[in-house]
Amino acid sequence: MNNPILWTSVALLVGVLMGLYLALILKSSNTKRKFEQLNHRYFKGLNYLLNDESDKAIDVFIQLAETSHETFEPQLALGNLYRRKGEVDRAIKLHQALIAKAELPERYRTRALLAIGKDYMSAGLLDRAEVLFSELVEIEAHTPEALQSLVEIYQQEQDWLQAIKSASRFQSATNRNMSRPIGHFYCELAELSLAQGDEVEAEKYLASALRVDKKSIRAHLICARINQSNKKHQNAIDEFDLAIKADPSYIPVFIDDMAACYLAIKQGEQLEQKLLQLMDQYRGVSPVMTLADYYAKVKGVDAAADFLSEQLKKRASFKGLDALLELSDQQDAKLKNFDYIDVLRELIAKLLKGKPKLRCRKCGFGAQSLHWQCPSCKHWGVVKPIYGLESE
């Protein structure tokens, strides 16, 4: 909405709608003089608006709000447009004038309260917005919208318990499935507990996360991390297996940790079988690279390079090629003597530098590291590893 032409077009549309609305008033009103007064002030305000004299336009519309609630709808819409355009102060001023009108019908007042709450959110005044939305929930007015806004506020404030409470109430009020975000809220609480050294409390929150969202891969990965740090490697492997069943697209995120658990309990053969199995069901290159790394330790660099080279014919990947070139540095064979090997490695490094490793499946946001909540669109569990020549 920052495009001046677009803003002017929208303003004209609002003006036309206001004109039509006033025409309806003329049909239903018994006092023609009252309409003529409203009509004059309305066009005066619209003229200010189109001449980019927004402050004067708002003053006129505020006067209209003080004398009649017949123009409530277009003025509410105009305030919303100001908010979307980024002129939050003007939106607040206009919406406050609507609420301040004496004898404003309750159905209008609650809608104006909802609008001001959104204005406050846009302005970053979260505490004021929270008060208004909580009031609307308490009086059962515009409950779904108010609850949804409260969930957004509590996420920004990282008040996860209140976010869970509001999200649960929103789910009950709308029948919309909120299990995924609620599961992540419990995981956030678990992460906070772990940061404070309270594993018992963290495990309680993780159990709640899995109770709400049985496919919470994040909860399984946190459980795996706890078990791995406590040297309960088999338990960690079990959690990694559950994570794979929940969502195999995250395999690149944890496959090295899973391999480390197998090796910690001397289960190299089981690791090999697991990775071969993953190669059959997962189209990315990460299991191949992890298995090549294992082969380098137990069979030698030449065997690992031969295996990786053969697999890259089936799964083309610069990431895999870079790993192959790294293995070649440790070989005494032909690749090490390739005159342009250093140039090739440098080109691949430049190609991969700065490339996102993960991407949001909702909005396309690219990231180098895992975000459980997309920083752009704010959806949960949608930032996943990228498949393609430059990544998996």
Question: How would you portray this structure in words?
Answer:
This protein has 392 residues and is mainly alpha-helical. Among the domains are: 1-123, no CATH class; 354-392. Helix content is 71%, strand content 2%. The protein has helices at 4-28, 32-50, 54-67, 72-85, 88-100, 106-123, 126-138, 143-157, 160-174, 179-195, 199-212, 217-229, 233-246, 251-264, 268-281, 286-298, 301-312, 318-328, 341-352; strands at residues 358-360, 366-367, 383-385. The protein has a three-stranded antiparallel beta sheet with strand order 2-1-3, with no helix packed on it. A hairpin with a 5-residue loop joins strand 1 and strand 2 (366-367). Helix 17 packs antiparallel against helix 18.
What's the short story on this structure?
The protein has 392 residues and is mainly α. Helices cover 71% and strands 2% of the residues. Among the domains are: 1-123, no CATH class; 354-392.
- Bulk shape: elongated
User: In order across it, which strands form the biggest sheet?
Assistant: 2-1-3
Sheet with the most strands? 3 strands, antiparallel
Measure the end-to-end span.
37 Å
Fraction of residues in β-strands: under 5%
Order of helices and strands: HHHHHHHHHHHHHHHHHHHEEE
Structural class: mainly alpha
Total strands: the figure is 3
Mean of the pLDDT scores? 83
Number of helices: 19
State the low-pLDDT regions, or none: 28-38
What percent of residues adopt helix (DSSP H or I)?
A: over 70%
Give me the Rg, rounded.
Answer: 30 Å
